Amino acid sequence: MTELEASVEEFLGNAGSVLSEYEQGYTDADAALSVLEGEIEELREALDE
Q1: 11 in Cβ contact with 43 (< 8 Å)
Q2: Each residue's pLDDT tens digit, 26-41
Q3: Angle, CA 13 vertex, CA 3 and CA 18 arms, to 5°
């Protein structure tokens, strides 16, 4: 598995967790979006490497 593939796999897992927490009412929309924005930025950085 390449570093990029690992980053994508990590992103998908984390994004899925955030969405699940939101759907279950454990987090609000603003917090979920904030986490997702951070995850997207990390994925972009991995792509640039």
Answers
A1: yes
A2: 999 999 999 999 999 9
A3: 135
